[in-house]
Structure prediction request, 656 residues.
Amino acid sequence: MPGKITLQLKQIRKVYTMGEHKIFALDGVDLTFLEGEMAAIMGSSGSGKSTLLNIIGCLDRPTEGTYILDGEDISDLNKNQLASIRNKKFGFVFQAFNLLGRVTVRANVQLPLIYAGMDKKEMEARTKEALAWVGLAGYMNHLPGQMSGGQQQRVAIARALVNSPSLILADEPTGALDSKTSIEIMAVIQRLNREKGITVIMVTHDKDIACYCRRLILLKDGHVVEDTRLDHQRDAAADLAALTEKAEAEA
Amino acid sequence: MNITNNFQISFSGLKANKLRSVLTMLGVIIGVSAVIIMIAVGQGASKRISDQISSMGSNLLMVFPGAGQGAVRGAGGSVNTLTLDDAEAIAELPFVNYVAPELSSNATIEYEGQTWTAQYNGTTPDMQGIRDLSTVSGSFFTEDDVADTNLVAVLGKTIVDNIYPPGVDPVGTTVRVNKLAFTVVGVLASKGASIGGQDQDNVLYIPVSTAQKRLLGVKYVRLINVQTATADSMGYVQSSIESLLRDRHHLASTSSDDFNVRNLASVLETAENATAVMTMLLASIAAVSLLVGGIGIMNIMLVSVTERTREIGLRMAVGATEGNILGQFLVEAMVLCLSGGIIGILLGVAGAKIVSVLAGWPTSVTMFSVLLATGFSAAIGIFFGYYPAKKAAGLDPIEALRFEK
Prediction:
């Protein structure tokens, strides 16, 4: 089971000033994540869950507090250093996929590698591997627009894992998908977590999706109000198989 | 991340919006080709004028009869003041290399029934040195021919082509000039057209004395060409000619000159200045269209940045630095400008050719104008691409990712 600490948030505050008012999007969050964890962050809108994920993903910087990533304090890094950390350590999966519609699947998946400055041959090999891993080996030259939502999200996952990140951050990864496709995507994410040992932190508002994780963090008004281990993690692959069986039985 | 990647990204971006890219480039294409065509036309004209003027001879002073510039082609009595003796006296002055008086008129040339109208030019052998005349057959007439008023002629190429059957060497034959029989002693090499588009080969040279006494029955010459030894001595020679002629013509100190010395170098300079001003004028009008093209590029780049806000956010999320984004959009603007520039250069060169063929106006596309246009379009790319690129690079990745079209 996971043991080593991968990231630690200490007394993280994020304050937005709107004129006279100060809004505490995050108000003293302490969280520790271990390597290989799979955690869901839940909370109503405005609870600060997206802000928290953005701060974890180095897309945003906390107003106060300390952020230690793999033993290194990264609270005071500049924009370029943060860009480099995002490139090397994180993979992002978004609700809206955020694929570039005008270029091929290959170019989309290669995007993080281009900014990593990798040579062409290795880029190609890694892209192939990542796409094969999400089950889209034959789709290199497709355009995202020619693919279904589930396939597009799998391309996005391939993009997230292509540069071998230690963490994958997912913001409502199933938010734009129907429930069966959602389970499909969760199966890919679970596999990523189990087989590759990548730490997964995802934001969701869907309890059914959260129960595919092993840890549930509940935010309210910028505070962590609940942080529990889920002892009965559901297995998405099994659920998917059951669903398919059921559909066949009905047919 | 390197510049090659930037180019790949830019090309795929531009390819994805082909029509828009081409329309954006159009501004630069038109601007660059306009600059090139305008400069080519201007410089072609300038080159032609200076070529023509220098083909008349270098270090050349021309002495015209009559007072002042305006009287050069003036009427009647005042134009008869220069004589062969004046020319001989000028030849004695220091720093004078060649002196060639000219007395010309039109005549009908006839050879074995073939007739042709051409200009005859009565002069001295010094004309060869001044006009840089050479013969392809035979030789120029001599000082003795001038002294003896011999009926000898040197023919220009156009005359030969028009009155002689092909393959006949005119040297030694007899032609009739206004019915008077002349022995042909030489045929000149071709000189081409003059400034005014006049055929400089449709001329025959005869001794000036022959023209005066046998053809026209006059004692004056129309003008005297004087070539000085060096360019520096032109001013000196000019003033010595002026005082010499005033003396020879017995002019009182109160009366004005009855002749007029023109310095070809200053004529050349004036002509060059005039064409340079014209070239600059044309080029600056063209440059304005290049500027408008540049603004068009900025406009499109701004639209493109807004349209691609999410893409920028995503690129930042996967590790693009501000510099990467800045580079991407700058390169994109530059690729637009430079490819527009290159197409513009090709069109400009072709356009300049078309102008010279259709209008019969000489053009010369110089390396300078090509470099200028290329440099200008690259500079426009950077200048007008910088603001949109800076705007893109300054985006906040979270806001950019959240951006709704």
Observations:
- Chain A has one domain: 5-250.
- Chain A touches chain B through 26 residues (CB under 8 Å).
